[in-house]
Specification:
Elements: H1 3-7, H2 20-34, H3 40-44, H4 52-60, H5 67-83, E1 87-89, H6 95-98, H7 108-122, E2 127-133, E3 144-150, E4 155-158, E5 163-166, E6 171-176, E7 179-184, E8 186-190, E9 194-201, E10 208-216, E11 225-226, E12 230-239, E13 245-254, H8 261-281, E14 285-292, E15 301-306, E16 311-317, E17 326-328, E18 336-339, E19 357-360, H9 365-385, H10 396-433, E20 443-445, H11 455-467, H12 472-487, H13 491-503, H14 511-519, H15 525-545, H16 554-578
Parallel strand pairs: 14-18
Antiparallel strand pairs: 1-20, 2-3, 2-11, 4-5, 5-8, 6-7, 8-9, 9-10, 12-13, 14-17, 14-19, 15-16
Helix pairs in contact: 4-8, 5-7, 8-9, 11-12, 12-13, 13-15, 13-16, 15-16
């Protein structure tokens, strides 16, 4: 499509995405639970015959009781994805850029695992847009890019030929005689060849726009893509292929956490119900005896006089007793019922068996029920989201079986995040930075499982592997996993491990295994002695170098330290021979 001749003249009549309403609805429904946004929808549709004062109370006292469950599920998923041994090999040309802080102040992969992931859960139908920045229009300068996520409500048009969105940027427009303000609308149009800018101009009420080419699109296609979730097909009212009103099928994404929404919505509704019940039933009512108002009124009313004309203008309700003539002898934060003054018969005395103040206890059964049911639905919500919680008080086969179901969600998330989203990003970024070069092959290696085991479980795995005679390289990888789990992000220890694996051929062997290898002449005494000295020499060198040790090349360290270990071995073997 030619943007200037075909799209711009028909901008206002060009159809908006048929599923846009569904995009916005999905986002609005999710952020009630992920961001704790108050939802009057759940409350307004709950009790159609409820009094307005109680309904207002429940709306004003909205509590996001499901937010913690959704945030915990998100944190668990990010923790697993971050700690898993995913390997992304960037193309050489853009490797330095991907590790820079050009992605909202952090490197690319941290941006994807944190900010992007949260947005994907909240707004599955939002669009990822890589935006050109820098010396745009100057062919002698390299253009850079930065990530922008366009929310569903800001999408104007989205097809294979054009993508238009409302920007947060504002243009200067006239707001009065000789006065201007930055409040005009700015749209950006991404076509197959160019990116256009549509800016509001003139007076704010004239709705006039000007168009200009903003940048070249080097990708050759309309590259924005939706963040993604569970693809869903529904029928909505729209125009069919003949332009007639009809039911049409549209596709849109539901959040990867959408399976928990039914329970979560009901939990919020029932918690709000509980608030309404609590207003009526959670506290006892106080019944108090009334006494005559001492504010100077006459049966609850105060006379109004015109002092100049000495004429009574009328009466008004007393501010103290509000026209009742009686006031309770005490107040209560729970609500007060004023008992009218008792009428005494002939010969009766003032004393009575009814106390001056007494409490009326409401039936608390409904309160107990409403308080329990919202918590039941909160548990159902957590159980549903527990597909992403893999820490359980189980062991053996039962734990592994449960993990299979839980990890299925993680498998889908990881496949979409890495194999889908990351690959698209790298293609777009590479094309913007180096438009004349072909996109090279990208290698992304996902682990066979996203299970995060405890150190104890990993040690048990290592023991089983040793007992079954597993190859050394498998035991090395499992040992490396143990160190990662036990010491977290301690890159210092990980570097020592990598150096020892490269330096010492029998590094992972136990002392008993080494003795057996020596006795069977598989290795020599010198090699066994080498093993004894290797660890201490590497650790001493690491302490001497300090934190720079982590950034040094492993091969260079091995080349440097091997002669030092060989020297120690030679000295020890010589001393043994002398004896």
């Amino acid at each position: 499509m030619d943007i200037e001749t075909e799209y711009i003249p028909n901008f206002d009549s060009y159809p908006q995405p048929a599923a846009k309403k569904l995009w916005v609805e999905d986002y609005d429904r999710m952020i009630v639970h992920t961001q704790g946004k108050p939802s009057s929808r759940l409350i307004n549709t709950r009790r159609p015959n409820e009094s307005e004062d109680v309904k207002k109370y429940r709306i004003d006292n909205f509590r996001p009781v499901t937010q913690a469950a959704f945030n915990q599920a998100s944190d668990n998923a990010k923790r697993v994805l971050s700690h898993s041994s995913v390997e992304v090999i960037y193309p050489d040309k853009i490797k330095d850029f991907m590790f820079s802080d050009s992605f909202n102040g952090t490197d690319y992969m941290n941006y994807k695992k944190n900010y992007y992931f949260d947005k994907m859960i909240d707004a599955a139908n939002a669009f990822m847009v890589w935006w050109p920045v820098g010396q745009i229009g100057d062919v002698t300068k390299q253009v850079s890019v930065e990530p922008i996520i366009v929310m569903p409500e800001d999408v104007v048009h989205a097809t294979d030929e054009v993508f238009t969105f409302l920007s947060s940027e504002k243009s200067w427009v006239e707001v009065g005689q000789g006065e201007s303000a930055p409040i005009g609308q700015v749209f950006y149009i991404i076509g197959e060849k160019e990116i256009w800018k549509k800016s509001q101009v003139g007076r704010i009420d004239s709705i006039e726009f000007e168009y200009a080419i903003y940048a070249v699109n080097p990708c050759g296609y309309v590259y924005p893509y939706q963040l993604g979730g569970k693809e869903t097909i529904v029928e909505i009212e729209g125009k069919n292929r003949y332009g007639q009103d009809d039911e049409i099928e549209v596709k849109y994404f539901k959040s990867f956490f959408s399976h928990a929404l039914a329970y979560a919505d009901e939990c919020l509704a029932r918690f709000s119900d509980n608030q309404g019940v609590a207003v009526r039933c959670s506290s006892p009512l106080m019944e108090v005896e009334s006494v005559k108002c001492t504010a100077g009124c006459k049966n609850g009313f105060v006379e109004m006089w015109d002092s100049e004309k000495k004429k009574m203008l009328g009466t008004t309700a007393c501010e103290t007793c509000h026209g009742r003539g009686k006031v309770p002898i005490t107040g209560s934060p729970y609500g007060v019922i004023t008992r009218p003054e008792r009428q005494k018969g002939v010969g009766e005395f003032d004393n009575t068996d009814i106390p001056t103040v007494r409490f009326i206890h409401p039936e608390v059964g409904i309160l107990d029920y409403s308080d329990r049911t919202w918590q039941d639905y909160l548990k159902m919500t957590k159980d549903s989201l527990a597909l992403l919680r893999i820490d359980q008080a189980q062991s053996g086969a039962a734990k592994e079986i449960d993990r299979e179901n839980q990890l299925s969600v993680l498998d889908v998330l990881a496949a979409y995040l890495y194999k889908g989203s990351v690959v698209q990003d790298l293609m777009i970024i590479h094309k913007f930075l180096y438009p004349s070069l072909d996109f090279p092959q990208v290698t992304i290696n996902l682990p066979s499982s996203f299970i995060i085991k405890s150190p104890g479980e990993i040690l048990e795995d290592i023991k089983i592997l040793r007992d079954q005679g597993a190859p050394d390289f498998i035991i090395i990888e499992k040992t490396r996993e143990y160190i990662q789990k036990a010491y977290g992000s301690d890159q210092f220890r990980m570097k020592i491990f990598d150096v020892l694996v490269a330096l010492d051929p029998v590094f992972i062997k136990t002392q008993n295994e080494i003795s057996q290898l020596v006795s069977s002449t598989v290795i020599t005494n010198e090699q066994a002695t080498f093993h004894l000295w290797a660890t201490s020499i590497v650790e001493s060198y690491a302490k001497e170098i300090g934190r720079d040790f982590v950034t040094m090349d492993t091969g260079s360290i091995v080349t440097l330290l091997k002669p030092k270990v060989d020297q120690k071995v030679a000295e020890e073997m010589a001393s043994v021979s002398a004896l």
